Amino acid sequence: DMVKLIEDNYCVDTAHLFANGFSYGGGMTYEIACARAKVFRGVAIYEGGLLSGCDGGNDPIALWQMEGLTDTTVTMGMAVPIRDRFVTNNDCTVQTPPQPAQPPPYLNPGGHSCTDYAGCSAGYPLRWCVHQSGHGPSPVDGTADLYNSCATAPSTCSDACPCSWVSADVWQWLTAL
To answer: In the sheet where 62-68 sits, what is the strand order?
Structure first.
Protein backbone atom coordinates (compact mmCIF):
# COMPACT_ATOMS: atom_id res chain seq x y z
CA ASP A 1 0.00 0.00 0.00
CA MET A 2 2.86 2.39 0.78
CA VAL A 3 4.54 1.71 -2.57
CA LYS A 4 1.24 2.34 -4.39
CA LEU A 5 0.67 5.58 -2.44
CA ILE A 6 4.15 6.84 -3.29
CA GLU A 7 3.95 5.81 -6.94
CA ASP A 8 0.50 7.42 -7.34
CA ASN A 9 1.59 10.74 -5.85
CA TYR A 10 5.25 11.20 -6.78
CA CYS A 11 7.52 10.76 -9.74
CA VAL A 12 9.70 7.83 -8.69
CA ASP A 13 12.01 5.40 -10.41
CA THR A 14 10.17 2.19 -9.61
CA ALA A 15 13.24 0.13 -10.56
CA HIS A 16 15.12 1.67 -7.62
CA LEU A 17 12.89 1.32 -4.58
CA PHE A 18 14.80 0.70 -1.35
CA ALA A 19 13.84 -0.05 2.22
CA ASN A 20 15.99 0.45 5.27
CA GLY A 21 15.52 0.19 8.98
CA PHE A 22 17.24 0.24 12.35
CA SER A 23 16.68 -2.27 15.18
CA TYR A 24 13.04 -3.40 15.07
CA GLY A 25 12.76 -1.48 11.79
CA GLY A 26 15.70 -3.58 10.58
CA GLY A 27 13.71 -6.69 11.43
CA MET A 28 10.78 -5.31 9.44
CA THR A 29 13.14 -4.46 6.58
CA TYR A 30 14.21 -8.11 6.61
CA GLU A 31 10.56 -9.12 6.21
CA ILE A 32 10.26 -6.70 3.26
CA ALA A 33 13.38 -8.28 1.72
CA CYS A 34 11.78 -11.71 2.10
CA ALA A 35 8.27 -10.88 0.97
CA ARG A 36 8.87 -8.11 -1.58
CA ALA A 37 12.22 -8.83 -3.24
CA LYS A 38 10.57 -8.43 -6.64
CA VAL A 39 9.28 -4.94 -5.69
CA PHE A 40 12.31 -3.49 -3.88
CA ARG A 41 15.74 -3.16 -5.52
CA GLY A 42 17.59 -3.52 -2.25
CA VAL A 43 17.52 -3.12 1.51
CA ALA A 44 19.84 -1.71 4.17
CA ILE A 45 19.56 -3.19 7.65
CA TYR A 46 21.14 -1.39 10.62
CA GLU A 47 21.39 -3.56 13.75
CA GLY A 48 18.37 -5.61 12.70
CA GLY A 49 17.80 -9.25 13.47
CA LEU A 50 15.38 -12.10 13.23
CA LEU A 51 12.47 -10.41 14.96
CA SER A 52 9.72 -11.41 12.57
CA GLY A 53 9.07 -14.12 10.06
CA CYS A 54 10.29 -14.35 6.52
CA ASP A 55 7.32 -14.67 4.18
CA GLY A 56 8.73 -16.21 1.01
CA GLY A 57 12.38 -15.38 1.39
CA ASN A 58 13.75 -17.32 -1.56
CA ASP A 59 14.36 -14.49 -4.04
CA PRO A 60 17.59 -12.50 -4.33
CA ILE A 61 17.73 -8.86 -3.28
CA ALA A 62 20.64 -6.45 -2.89
CA LEU A 63 21.58 -6.31 0.80
CA TRP A 64 23.67 -3.91 2.91
CA GLN A 65 23.77 -5.01 6.54
CA MET A 66 25.54 -3.74 9.66
CA GLU A 67 25.91 -5.32 13.09
CA GLY A 68 27.81 -4.39 16.24
CA LEU A 69 29.94 -6.94 18.02
CA THR A 70 28.98 -5.54 21.42
CA ASP A 71 25.27 -5.09 20.61
CA THR A 72 23.32 -6.86 23.35
CA THR A 73 19.90 -5.69 22.08
CA VAL A 74 20.08 -7.33 18.65
CA THR A 75 22.94 -9.77 18.92
CA MET A 76 25.26 -11.04 16.22
CA GLY A 77 23.42 -14.36 16.49
CA MET A 78 20.20 -12.61 15.46
CA ALA A 79 21.82 -10.78 12.51
CA VAL A 80 23.98 -13.49 10.93
CA PRO A 81 21.02 -15.65 9.75
CA ILE A 82 19.73 -12.69 7.70
CA ARG A 83 23.10 -12.32 6.00
CA ASP A 84 23.37 -16.07 5.44
CA ARG A 85 19.90 -16.29 3.86
CA PHE A 86 20.83 -13.70 1.24
CA VAL A 87 24.33 -15.09 0.71
CA THR A 88 22.43 -18.19 -0.46
CA ASN A 89 19.62 -16.38 -2.31
CA ASN A 90 22.08 -14.10 -4.12
CA ASP A 91 24.41 -17.00 -5.00
CA CYS A 92 27.32 -15.28 -3.24
CA THR A 93 30.51 -17.08 -2.34
CA VAL A 94 30.49 -18.13 1.31
CA GLN A 95 33.32 -16.48 3.26
CA THR A 96 35.62 -18.90 5.07
CA PRO A 97 35.59 -18.21 7.93
CA PRO A 98 32.57 -15.89 7.94
CA GLN A 99 33.23 -12.33 9.12
CA PRO A 100 34.00 -11.63 11.90
CA ALA A 101 36.38 -14.51 12.55
CA GLN A 102 37.24 -13.45 16.09
CA PRO A 103 35.34 -11.76 18.92
CA PRO A 104 36.29 -8.18 19.81
CA PRO A 105 38.71 -6.54 19.77
CA TYR A 106 39.58 -7.30 16.17
CA LEU A 107 40.15 -3.65 15.34
CA ASN A 108 41.92 -1.15 17.54
CA PRO A 109 40.91 1.49 18.71
CA GLY A 110 37.45 0.29 17.81
CA GLY A 111 36.41 0.55 14.22
CA HIS A 112 34.53 -1.26 11.53
CA SER A 113 35.21 -3.77 8.81
CA CYS A 114 33.06 -4.33 5.72
CA THR A 115 33.03 -7.34 3.42
CA ASP A 116 31.70 -7.23 -0.13
CA TYR A 117 30.78 -10.80 -0.90
CA ALA A 118 32.16 -12.18 -4.15
CA GLY A 119 30.35 -14.27 -6.73
CA CYS A 120 26.91 -12.76 -6.12
CA SER A 121 24.43 -12.85 -8.99
CA ALA A 122 24.60 -9.77 -11.20
CA GLY A 123 22.64 -6.94 -9.63
CA TYR A 124 22.42 -8.55 -6.19
CA PRO A 125 25.47 -7.47 -4.19
CA LEU A 126 25.82 -8.20 -0.51
CA ARG A 127 27.81 -5.92 1.80
CA TRP A 128 28.26 -6.99 5.44
CA CYS A 129 29.69 -4.47 7.91
CA VAL A 130 30.72 -5.24 11.45
CA HIS A 131 31.73 -2.67 14.06
CA GLN A 132 32.91 -2.87 17.65
CA SER A 133 30.14 -0.69 19.06
CA GLY A 134 26.76 -1.50 20.52
CA HIS A 135 23.19 -0.86 19.39
CA GLY A 136 23.05 2.33 17.33
CA PRO A 137 22.37 3.30 13.71
CA SER A 138 25.47 5.45 13.15
CA PRO A 139 28.48 4.39 15.24
CA VAL A 140 31.52 6.63 15.12
CA ASP A 141 34.77 4.67 14.95
CA GLY A 142 36.94 4.90 18.04
CA THR A 143 34.22 6.53 20.17
CA ALA A 144 31.20 5.52 22.23
CA ASP A 145 28.94 7.64 19.96
CA LEU A 146 26.29 5.44 18.35
CA TYR A 147 24.17 8.26 16.90
CA ASN A 148 26.53 10.42 14.85
CA SER A 149 26.15 13.30 17.33
CA CYS A 150 28.61 15.61 15.56
CA ALA A 151 26.44 15.61 12.46
CA THR A 152 23.51 17.08 14.41
CA ALA A 153 23.23 20.87 14.45
CA PRO A 154 24.67 22.93 15.97
CA SER A 155 27.64 20.52 15.92
CA THR A 156 29.55 19.79 12.74
CA CYS A 157 31.98 17.06 11.85
CA SER A 158 35.66 17.84 12.34
CA ASP A 159 38.89 16.21 13.48
CA ALA A 160 37.85 17.01 17.05
CA CYS A 161 34.28 15.78 16.50
CA PRO A 162 34.34 12.91 13.98
CA CYS A 163 31.30 11.63 12.14
CA SER A 164 30.07 8.14 11.43
CA TRP A 165 31.16 6.17 8.39
CA VAL A 166 27.69 4.61 7.97
CA SER A 167 25.81 7.20 5.87
CA ALA A 168 28.58 7.57 3.29
CA ASP A 169 29.03 3.80 3.04
CA VAL A 170 25.32 3.12 2.52
CA TRP A 171 25.00 5.97 0.02
CA GLN A 172 27.96 4.70 -2.02
CA TRP A 173 26.46 1.20 -2.02
CA LEU A 174 22.98 2.43 -3.03
CA THR A 175 24.19 4.68 -5.84
CA ALA A 176 26.26 1.85 -7.31
CA LEU A 177 23.12 -0.27 -7.85
So the answer is: 18-22, 42-46, 62-68, 126-131, 112-116
